[in-house]
Specification:
The chain is mainly alpha-helical. The chain is built from 14 helices and eleven strands. The chain has helices spanning 46-49, 72-83, 133-141, 146-159, 167-171, 185-191, 197-218, 234-247, 309-316, 343-352, 370-380, 389-396, 412-436, 447-502, and strands spanning 91-95, 101-105, 114-118, 249-251, 257-259, 268-269, 278-280, 285-289, 301-302, 329-335, 358-364. The strands form five sheets. It has a three-stranded antiparallel beta sheet with strand order 3-8-7, with no helix packed on it. A two-stranded antiparallel ribbon has the order 1-2. Strand 1 and strand 2 (101-105) form a beta hairpin. Helix 11 crosses helix 13 (412-436). The longest helix is centred in the C-terminal third of the chain and has 56 residues, at 447-502. 43% of the residues are buried.
């Protein structure tokens, strides 16, 4: 993989956005093909999967790509890249301990050295030329945004097999990328019931299905010769979006263009590395600059961005070991109480600033954002503070840059207790899952199904353990602050009583 800085994108349906990044290849000028003989037959049709995130099947019938740890196709990719203009490299593809495949140093590499130098002609972008030009022209005439355009492009080129100039690149892509897109709704409910990442995964799956359905209704159904359903179906779109979520990068020096950069996507992530991909105008290639030295045989790493363990699982399908990710966070859900006499008034103000009556905020091991405290103030504020409601709602919104750091000493204790109650409620969900996780897979008879479930369960256990650790730390801080606050109030009350008795 490659560095993953934050990408916000728009698809054909409202509200479809995410954060991701990575790398892969693209060659340019492909021959016009009017009539195409498609070679794939996917088992799930558009209609069969249009019901939403409740259905997710394992894609065993898509013939392109390779097993996630295949070195044969990766070596062919390296040869093709070299023949296509990639300069000699100081790294080679090998099986590695962290990730199934990775780039390993062949020689001594200095700190501050630039590596890769992938030329733009070997990069796939929304401007890449289609083998079937008519298909590309149809999508562009319909103003299809970059993400669904690239997803369709990948499927189109993959279906051509060897006749596509990208065949060596696509053959080296995983047949089933590690992604929560491939978890069924039952698996998400079973393994991620305690984590807010479950909701984000469901939303992502629904958005991918919605994007596909929009393309199918608006474009594919009108041009069945260019977009036959046996090729362009929900299963192939899950594959292509899985590739994009885990491999697409945004290149700041190329006007923020999103791209698949081959070879670079063989780089694995390390939480200790800060280096990322970008276009180097001097060398006219996509490079990254090492932030540490490497010796021959050592795996070379890059950063996928400042992501939590949940975000890494969501897009890339792995969870760092507990305590390894200094940017890890957990989303804590806070909700207004419907029994509050001012509930509707508070809810309307939150909606005014883009928030809802139930809102998630990220908590890190080092603390929580000011917006969370402002939301808590609003949630516990009495009707006598009605004049401050809007100020609190505005401060709770990350869209407002001023007056976020508000304090209301008269209700601070109630706000902290409100956050603590939410924190402890969330911890109880993690405890329940982790207590029963050992018996989750005893009903499986198929060895293949057992292996899959054990793998998913281990990912879920690792994620829940790391997220619960952050909540435990927050619980400790909140309890201590409340204890100190109440001890101070008790001392003040005793002093007040002493003065009152003195003057009686």
């Amino acid at each position: 993989m490659a560095e993953a800085s934050r990408i916000t994108y728009t698809t054909l349906i409202p509200g479809f956005s995410s954060t991701t990044q990575r790398t892969h290849v693209g060659l340019g000028h492909l021959k016009l093909t009017v009539s195409r003989k498609y070679q794939i037959h996917c088992s799930v049709s558009a209609n069969a999967s249009a019901s939403g995130a409740t259905q997710t099947s394992v894609m065993e019938t898509i013939p392109w790509g390779c097993e996630i740890d295949s070195l044969e196709n990766a070596s062919a990719l390296q040869r093709w890249l070299s023949e296509s203009g990639l300069p000699p490299q100081k790294m080679a593809i090998e099986k590695v301990d962290v990730g199934e495949r990775g780039l390993v140093a062949l020689t001594n590499i200095r700190k501050g050295e630039k590596l890769l130098f992938v030329p733009p002609k070997l990069v796939i972008t929304a401007d890449s030329e289609w083998s079937c030009r008519e298909a590309g022209e149809v999508l562009k005439r319909n103003s299809v945004p970059d993400w669904p355009l690239l997803a369709t492009y990948l499927i189109s080129e993959a279906s051509l097999m060897k006749s596509s100039k990208w065949s060596n690149y696509i053959s080296a892509l995983p047949r089933q990328p590690y992604s929560l897109l491939y978890w069924s709704r039952a698996e998400l409910d079973r393994y991620l019931e305690a984590s807010q990442i479950r909701e984000r995964a469901i939303e992502r799956i629904n958005n991918v299905i919605g994007t596909y359905n929009d393309l199918r209704l608006r474009i594919f159904s009108k041009y069945p010769d260019l977009f036959p359903e046996e090729v362009f179906n929900i299963e192939s779109f899950k594959w292509s979006f899985g590739i994009l979520f885990s491999r697409l990068v945004r290149l700041p020096s190329m006007n923020g263009k999103v791209a698949l950069v081959p070879w670079a996507d063989m780089l694995n992530h390390s939480c200790d590395v800060d280096t990322f991909l970008d276009y180097d105008k001097l060398s006219k290639g996509i490079v990254f600059t090492t932030d540490r030295p490497y010796q021959p045989g050592e795996q070379v790493f890059i950063s996928y961005g400042k992501k939590s363990n949940g975000e890494l699982l969501l897009s890339y399908g792995f969870v760092p070991r507990e305590g390894d990710n200094p940017r890890d966070s957990v989303e804590l859900s806070l909700s207004l109480k419907k029994s509050d006499g001012s509930y509707l008034e508070k809810l309307e103000l939150l909606k005014k600033y883009g928030l809802s009556g139930s809102q998630c905020f990220p908590i890190q091991i080092t603390g929580w954002p000011l917006e969370l405290m402002a939301y808590a103030y609003l949630a516990v504020s009495p009707s006598s503070m009605r004049g401050q409601y809007e100020e609190m709602a505005a401060a709770a919104s990350n869209k407002i840059s001023s007056k976020k750091d508000l304090r209301y000493p008269e209700i601070e204790e109630q706000a902290l207790q409100f956050i603590l109650d939410s924190c402890e409620s969330s911890i109880s969900k993690y405890n329940k899952f982790l207590q029963v996780s050992g018996s989750l897979d005893l009903d499986v008879t198929s060895p293949k199904q057992l292996n899959r479930r054990l793998f998913l369960k281990q990912l879920a256990v690792d994620l829940c353990t790391s997220e619960r650790r952050i909540l435990f730390r927050s619980q400790y801080i909140l309890r201590r602050r409340l204890r100190d606050m109440r001890a101070g109030e008790l001392r003040a009350l005793k002093i007040f009583d002493g003065f009152r008795n003195l003057f009686q």
